[in-house]
Amino acid sequence: MRFIRLLLLFIISVQLDAQTVSTSRPWTYWWWMGNAVTKKDISAQLEYFKKAGIGGVHIIPIYGAKGYESGYIPFLSPEWIDVMQYTIQEGSRMGIGVDMTTGTGWPFGGPNVSIDLAAKNMKPVNGKLVITPTQQKVKRAAPGGEGYVLDPFHSSAMAQYLSRFDSAFRTVKYLPRSMYNDSYEAYGANWTDDFPEEFRKRRGYEIEKQQSLLIDSTNNEDGVLVKIDYHQTLAELLRERYALPWTQWSKAHGFLTRYQAHGSPGNLLDLYETADIPETESFGTSRFAIPGLRIDPDYSIDQFGTPNPLAMKFASSAAHFSGKKLVSSETGTWLANHFKVSLSQIKPQIDELFTAGINHIFYHGTTYSPENEAYPGWLFYASTNFGKNSHFAEHFPLLNDYVQRTQERLQNSISDNDILLYFPIHDLWATPAKSAGNVHLLEVHHVDRWLLDLPFGQLAQWLWKEGFTFDYVSDLQLSRLKVDEKGNLFTGKTSYKTILIPAGTFMPEETLAELKRLSAAGASIIFDQHIPAKVTGYQNHENRQKSFADDLSQLVKSNKITVSGDLTKDLTASGAMQEELSRKGLTFIRKKTADGKTFYFVANLGSTFKEGWIAVSKSEVLSKYDPLRGESSLSYRISKDKKKEIFLSLLPGQSCFLQEPAGKSDTSVENRKSEEFTIKGNWELTFLKGRPNVPAATKLNEMKSWTMLPDSAIYFSGTACYKITFDVPRQLLGSKSVLLDLGDVREVATVRLNGKSVGTAWSIPFQLPLSKDLKEKGNILEIEITNLSANYMRLRDQQKPEWKKFNDINIVDITYQKFDAAKWEPMPSGLLGPVKLIYY
Fold it and tell me: Name one GO molecular function term (predicted).
């Protein structure tokens, strides 16, 4: 018997070791409210994640639910460490990875951060620098995580903060994959105890004696130079004393790191690059022109801004430059109001991230909720609900399969961008700051405050629109570039054709020295419109300015750089390729596999393109792969100018890969014409399952929202079946291909034709290919539609609003006001059509 037990233990151990964690599958934030978790419920929810196709979870302890105080587990207590290790063991058994935040809530801080180590604010007042603690506490802290936010510029604050984790993890056997550092939100922090000394060592003069210049608002040149020096010092201290110590500590303890550097006053490229996995953020809804795509009208652009791929590219550029495999994103935060987010709204946001270089999606998010908790369970105040009580939980695996197929290719490839676009952060520092503490905070929300209006941002927008591929590069990163015998710039991991310098004003002399070095080695360097006029640094500026101007003039005269008046011409001459995809209204990223094969991921996030012949710069890329359905097709031709072109059919909302072919070309699509047949008649509508009860069946002679029906359908959340019998024209049966176009679907449609499954349509356009099961007479079409939960919550908040029982912020709406679904208008639900057959 003892031998059998040992054998079973060995088998289980082997099974645990054999499980591999998938990074190609999407991961999710997992909010632990009050850490009031049990092992039984942890296992149950991990089982849901596994079945849904989730590859991993990210534990974030936050505030708790009222009435559950007896179950709260203090953060980092032995009991908390025990449930954390149990989660990792269970995750390993199921093939689910686990990350955790190095703290609770955000940003870093807690009970072992004294007021001396807490964030500080400096303000010049009447000729003196007045230093005061910001008094900021950890936001949304969990039990055991409350306390001051640490000073991110302090020489020893991070080490003191991490000492608590040293003690807690001293005997831990099962470690999370990665530690996580949330976006910088140390509001008003702009000083540290030894800042004057560090400033003097780094900048060569005393900041205290230049207070008048530091607060100058007249755009005085000396004042601008002092402000640049001040920001430069903050940026260096943030990297050296905050980002690097945390990543080095994590590495020493066996953790990877995920880091959201955005929101900070430092150079994002240098900060992101300190982490193993740079992480950006997609907060709110992009304004895609995809027909039929809904945007929550209550979302406030003025308050939150909108996602922007040019901001996302800071994280991916850092990853590409240093050859990091993974670059992640907090995804789906406030995509729409609670209970109103559809799968069809999520996919375009993810596609935007993919084209911006992101390849490791983290949903924001799911909330741990006791299994016996009544609907809707525990919810986090600001995220899209990707948990098991979500209205799209049944169809969630379809989205995750799509993400997995896409990320698998994106992760197992390297960047194939041509241009390194220099980020002239000193030009930003020369402008008036618009954030707290009078410092520039480079956030992902309001990119208009620091990115889009600068020449750098305008140039990046132009490159994106014109189809040039690029990554950003910082002053510090330039020093690591080398040049090969062909003049290509090489990072050790990635290669580029040219460096492009925006039309800026300021440049450090160290940066100019690096450009001279690279130019002498044969690199292509292009200045847009003009060369920079001024060197940075207030100390001894006049003499250094003369030397800077002389060196720059010699470099220009040597004909080793280009001052461009025609960027398209000069970039093309450098070897950078201009892709037609962008000018057709498509968004893309170009990458290559380890064996050198090029491919594109392409998303149609607009409304101008549907189908047509397109030339791509890599002429071997002639096959289309659809990650939504896992299908490949191939059609290409030789154009009149002897270029290979691929026929691309990609409707608004769709996406695909373009890759090397694996079969014979089909050019018959060139002359194809589509025809349409609208399915009309009487529909039988039967409600199948849902809340608060199942309405009576009815018949419809027109497509309309079921909220317009009598009975309780106006409050119904669930699934209903539309059924119709129809005939088709004889010529349709002889067509080469037939698509079922469902028109406007609210929100997911599962289809059967003549008793056989056709598939499920969950994203725009709501189309499904039909097999040969159509017949001329008596076709039976059944379409099961599942809607949102918003309409039911309208009733629930009228009758039983007791589910809103959370501490801290409790639950708020998308405008951060008290949540009350009872005030909402009914959300259209059901099959709104028109339903058509499109055939070729």
Answer: hydrolase activity, hydrolyzing O-glycosyl compounds
Distances (CA, A) of 799 to 389, 473, 818: 19, 56, 17
414: how many CB neighbours lie within 10 A of its CB? 16
Q: What is the pLDDT of residues 224-281, one digit of tens each?
A: 999 999 999 999 999 999 999 999 999 999 999 999 999 999 999 999 999 999 999 9
Strands (E), 166-291: 178-181, 256-259, 277-283
pLDDT tens digit string along 613-642? Answer: 898 888 777 789 999 999 888 777 766 666
Residue 1 pLDDT more than 50?
no
Strands 120-125, 109-110: pairing is unpaired
| Contacts for 642 with CB less than 8 Å, ≥ 6 apart | none
Query: Does 790 have pLDDT greater than 50?
Result: yes
Which fold does the domain 595-672 belong to in CATH?
Immunoglobulin-like (2.60.40)
d(CA 246, CA 719): 48
What's the helix, strand, coil split of the chain in %, to 5?
Answer: 30, 25, 45
Residue type at 638? Answer: I
3-state class of 838 per DSSP?
Answer: strand
Instruction: Using the CB atoms, write b or e for 174-206: b if 16+ within 10 Å.
Output: bbbbbbbbbbbbbbbbbbbbebbebbeeebeee
CA 72 to CA 443: how far, in whole Å?
Answer: 33
Q: Does domain 676-839 have CATH number 1.10.10.10?
A: no
CB-CB contact of 459 with 528 (8 Å): yes
What residues does each domain of the chain span?
Answer: 6-101+276-410, 419-573, 595-672, 676-839
pLDDT for 19 equals: 52
Helix residue spans in 386-454 (DSSP H): 396-411, 425-429
Strands 360-367 vs 27-33: parallel, antiparallel or unpaired: parallel
Stretch 311-315: mean pLDDT: 98
Q: What is the pLDDT of residue 15?
A: 35
Cα separations in angstroms, 231 against 9, 24, 391, 421, 444: 58, 38, 47, 21, 19
**Terminal Cα-to-Cα distance of the chain (whole angstroms):** 68
